[in-house]
Amino acid sequence: MELGLKGKSALVTGGSKGIGLATAHSFAREGVATLHLAARSEEGLAAARAALTAAYDVTVHIHPMDLASNENALELARRCAEVDILVNNAADSAAGPLHKLSDQIWRDSLDMKIFSYVTLSRELYAHMKRRGGGVIVNDIGNSGENPDADYIVGTTGNAAMMAFTRALGGRSLDDGIRVVGVNPGPVATDRMVKLMKRRALDWYDDESRWEELFDKYPGKRPASAEEVGDLIVWLSSERAGYITGTIVTIDGGIASRRSII
């Protein structure tokens, strides 16, 4: 299927691993000409760039920075002002129930999950509006629609980003811009393993039992990062040109079943 992405440019935050890196590879396969990848790990970004440029005809720029800092988010937006597509993906919400989370943990998590997304969206939206078009995809998470007291920071941040995406995307076509969201459930990444171990500790007092939690999923497995990345890329494409203000859930039926995880 021709997605109409050839020659486009995209910024992917959290692009050194997991969903972000899988999304970058999917963009490159579809002919995106220029990729900007941002993440905290310079080493990880360099490895990502090397792998992408070895496999595809793509130019890759890397931006090692912590997007929990508003100044860094503003600087990244300045560097990437001309991109056609923004994928907000960098986030690291802490696991655990309310009584185990300090105010600082809340602020650190939400600086990444809400404020970096909002800042980059606001800044790049203005440039897209000036040019007459663009796409913003927010990688959010299914706990925003399936509230989870044992992941209360993530649940809160994700619900806020769902509302932000729907509100902005409901108006954005006036400016030729689409804004959409993706709600993954568990995805086979290092971050998922960390969260699952935390939940196994809460449930079973034994983090080594984290893989037992897969039995509670309708699909009996997590999604792959590639499955989520391919969805993000399709939503960024001309084939999804009539989709805006919408959240697409990719969680194997967890939220629809109202599963407890």
From TrEMBL:
Domain of life: Bacteria
UniProt KW keywords: NAD, Oxidoreductase
A Pfam family the protein falls into: adh_short
Alphabetized InterPro entries for the sequence: NAD(P)-bd_dom_sf (IPR036291), SDR_DHRS6-like (IPR051122), SDR_fam (IPR002347)
GO molecular function: oxidoreductase activity
Record keyword Oxidoreductase present: yes
Gene3D superfamilies: NAD(P)-binding Rossmann-like Domain (3.40.50.720)
Name recorded for this polypeptide: Short-chain dehydrogenase
